[in-house]
Each structure stands twice: as structure tokens, then as C-alpha cells.
Design a protein that fits this description.
The chain is of the alpha+beta class and 194 residues long. Helix content is 16%, strand content 32%. Strands 2, 3, 5, 8, 9, 10, 11 and 12 form an 8-stranded mixed beta sheet that branches. A 4-stranded mixed beta sheet has the order 6-1-4-7, with no helix packed on it. It is elongated.
């Protein structure tokens, strides 16, 4: 392949599995478990950039107890997600559909009510600490399907648990024209090459 020598970017490795994108740095916040929430129950949290994340109340935790969680800010996620310039038209269509689903889900979560996240306190945090989410709603990623094949997807929901984040990803439409979603863990995802 020919490459413009004036291009300051390093040459890319053509093998798709060798591509990696520098992930955006997650921000750590805390939230107090809301009243009426027991271990195993989910609740919604708003971040300073207006994302809504779902958290699961861990065992041994109850109303008023603090949970630390990390998330990827929307702007940082967009910056780390690369550009649409080299995307295949099918991937662009998938991304546009996924953005609509992610927006719809965020609106549903907003309507259900959410607790505001707070900055971390000074000193040692003594509450529950959730593993960080490295992907944000609306981000593009590569998912490993149950068949072992990889395909492009878009994150529509982020669900934080004590065992690590879970993601609902949009995979496109079925032959019948129905939207196809899959819940997966971070080990099933990798950054979309930029």
C-alpha cells in the first residue's frame, strides 16, 4: 500500500488483530447507594458529562454506603474512538443506528431517575470500589461473537458491577430487520482501530 511520506502518523499494521487504540483515561467518582436499593439491585447514576450508568449494589452494601466507580468521559471516548474517515459504509450505518439506540436508552434511564455522582473524597476511600469501565455508551468497538468471529459494534449501555463492567452492544439488524444486541464483558471487547 502506498503511504504519503509527509503524513506524521506512524505506519499502521495491516493485520486487524494487531491494531490497538489508546483508550481514554477513566474518571473515578463515588456515589451513595440510594434509599430502597438492596444488594443485587440496580440503580442509575449521572456523571458530570450527563452520561447515565447503571450500577449494581454489591453484597454487604446498602442505602447511604459509598461505591467508587470509574467511567470514560464522552468527549474522551470520542477522541479515542478514531475518526469515521476510514470506516466501511456498513460500519458507519451501524454506528448511526447504535447512536439512536444509545440515545433512546439514556432517555429511558433518565426518565427512571438517577443519583448524581460526586468527586472522590480526599484520603483513603473505605467503600466498595468497582473495576473501571473502559468503554462508554456511543463508543465503537470490536466484539468477539459466540462463534469466535469478531465484528464491529457500538456500546449502547454500560452496567457497572463489583465483578467488572458489562456492556450492551448493538450488532446491527437481523435478516428480519430486527435490532441485534448482545450483553458482554470487557474481555469480549477491544477498541475500534483508528
Amino acid at each position: 500500500s502506498s503511504r504519503d511520506e509527509s503524513d506524521p502518523r506512524p505506519a499502521r499494521t495491516p493485520h486487524p488483530l494487531a491494531c490497538s487504540t489508546a483508550m481514554a483515561e477513566p474518571i473515578t467518582m463515588q456515589v451513595a447507594v440510594p434509599d430502597g436499593i438492596a444488594p443485587g439491585m440496580a440503580f442509575n447514576v449521572t456523571t458530570p458529562d450527563n452520561q447515565i450508568l447503571q450500577l449494581t449494589c454489591p453484597e454487604g452494601c446498602g442505602p447511604g454506603m459509598p461505591i467508587a466507580f470509574s467511567y470514560v468521559p464522552v468527549e474522551a471516548a470520542k477522541a479515542a474512538g478514531g475518526t469515521d474517515v476510514d470506516m466501511h459504509p456498513d460500519d458507519i450505518k451501524l454506528m448511526e443506528e447504535a447512536v439512536a439506540y444509545a440515545t433512546q436508552k439514556q432517555e429511558e434511564l433518565t426518565a427512571a431517575g438517577a443519583v448524581a455522582a460526586m468527586p472522590m473524597p480526599e484520603g483513603e476511600f473505605t467503600g466498595n470500589v468497582f473495576p473501571p469501565a473502559l468503554f462508554a455508551a456511543g463508543m465503537n468497538a470490536i466484539v468477539t461473537r459466540s462463534s469466535g468471529e469478531e465484528s464491529g459494534c457500538s456500546i449502547t449501555e454500560v452496567f457497572l458491577t463489583a465483578m467488572g463492567p458489562q456492556y450492551n452492544v448493538y450488532l446491527g439488524q437481523s435478516e428480519a430487520g430486527e435490532p441485534v444486541f448482545k450483553w458482554c464483558s470487557e474481555t469480549d471487547l477491544r477498541a475500534y482501530p483508528s
